[in-house]
Write a structure and sequence with these properties.
OB fold (Dihydrolipoamide Acetyltransferase, E2P); mainly beta; 5% helix; five-stranded mixed beta sheet; 165 residues; single chain; seven-stranded mixed beta sheet; globular
């Protein structure tokens, strides 16, 4: 069985339109953007391919072995304090991010593709989002009907909830 993979290569025609971000959705009303410099690929895998590990934080779904690489997969919604996946989910959309040599799979309900905007227009999240989410963000970008949360890959990979006690 061949798993679908989203190619995350940037086109030279789009260079002047701003910095590229992978746009994801945690729910119908919660969009997030992952800087493309940290995004490696997006895959869709059956739930059974993620091996649950006992005694882990709620946001940790388990381990995934993908092309001879083993890495943790977390439910980004739960990690950020939102409702997690529904119990009847059959497959995960996983955005694989990498910071240095550390890969991490972010399971999300929806992957929307690549969007671009200048990083200068990203605003401080303080006062706009819940204080518990702000440490995981580079900032936010108010849009017409919602606020796009711009993720900080370093903060996510090094989150205290993912560190061993």
């Amino acid at each position: 069985m061949t798993l679908p993979v989203l190619d995350l290569q940037s086109s030279s025609l789009q260079e002047g339109l701003g910095d590229p971000y992978l746009k994801l959705r945690l729910s119908d009303r919660i969009p997030v953007a992952l800087p493309m410099e940290a995004a490696r690929e997006v895959i869709v895998v059956p739930v059974e391919q993620v091996t649950p590990i006992p005694n882990m934080p709620t946001c940790v779904l388990g381990l995934l072995n993908q092309r001879s690489r083993v890495f943790w997969v977390v439910d980004l919604s739960i990690m950020l304090g939102y409702a997690g996946f529904m119990a009847n989910t059959r497959e995960y959309n996983i955005a694989i991010l990498q910071v240095g040599q550390v890969p991490l799979g972010l399971a999300v309900p929806t992957v929307q593709g690549v969007t671009r905007f200048p990083s200068e227009i990203v605003q401080s999240p303080i006062g706009t989002v819940a204080p518990s989410i702000a440490p995981y963000l580079r900032g936010c970008l108010p849009e017409e009907r919602e606020i796009l949360l711009v993720l900080d890959p370093n903060a996510i990979v090094n989150a205290s909830v993912l560190q061993r006690q």
